[in-house]
Structure formats: structure tokens, C-alpha cells
Automatic annotation (TrEMBL):
The keyword Kinase applies. Residues 25-102 form the Calcium/calmodulin-dependent protein kinase II association-domain domain. This is Calcium/calmodulin-dependent protein kinase type II subunit beta isoform 6. Keywords: Kinase, Transferase. Signal peptide: none annotated. It comes from Macaca mulatta. Pfam families: CaMKII_AD. It comes from the Eukaryota. GO terms for molecular function: calcium/calmodulin-dependent protein kinase activity; calmodulin binding.
Length: 107
């Protein structure tokens, strides 16, 4: 199940990176500038704590690499925690915390 939680977290981040507003609209709008180029995200050192059959918590370092509006490569790093709960056979992200993310949008 730990690998399933890591994969689900990666898919959620990918939805954010691809502009899937339904998946995580508020986070996308607050973090990404409209003129930034495609993003590559890596989850480093994931630690998964399984809680019973239907809950898990993952903590990791998120490394984000992208090209800014002026064509310069950029990298940012943040520490994130997500709490997942399985409802009706599907994992749902019920809590998210981020420390160390950029204060201004990525540009």
C-alpha cells in the first residue's frame, strides 16, 4: 500500500502540473504563473505511514524544475505532507500541508 500512496501522490501532483483545475484548482492558481513552461516534479525521500486499511500519511520533499517566463531554468523545493483516506475503493486526499514553497508564483 505504501507504493500505492506514493503513486497516488505523484498522480495528484501531475494533475496540478498539467493544469487539471478540477483536481486541485486553488493550488494551481496560487503557485503557477500563467507564463511558466512545463514543470517536472520529483518526490524525494517519501515516508509513508499506513494507518489501518483505509488511511495513510505521506511526507516527502518536492523538487520542482521548470522554465520561467524569460526562458531561464528554475528549481524550487518544499516539504509536503498529505493524508489519504480510501473511500469506495478510491484514495482521496483529505489533508495537505506544504512548508518552504515559494511565496510568489513560479515565474
Amino acid at each position: 500500500r505504501k507504493q500505492e500512496i506514493i503513486k497516488t501522490t505523484e498522480q495528484l501532483i501531475e494533475a496540478v502540473n498539467n493544469g487539471d483545475f478540477e483536481a486541485y484548482a486553488f493550488y494551481f492558481e496560487n503557485l503557477l504563473a500563467k507564463n511558466s513552461k512545463p514543470i517536472h516534479t520529483t518526490i524525494l525521500n517519501p515516508h509513508v505511514h499506513v494507518i489501518g486499511e483505509d488511511a495513510a500519511c505521506i511526507a516527502y520533499i518536492r523538487l520542482t524544475q521548470y522554465i520561467d517566463g524569460q526562458g531561464r531554468p528554475r528549481t524550487s523545493q518544499s516539504e509536503e505532507t498529505r493524508v489519504w483516506h480510501r473511500r469506495d475503493g478510491k484514495w482521496q486526499n483529505v489533508h495537505f500541508h506544504c512548508s518552504g514553497a515559494p511565496v510568489a508564483p513560479l515565474q
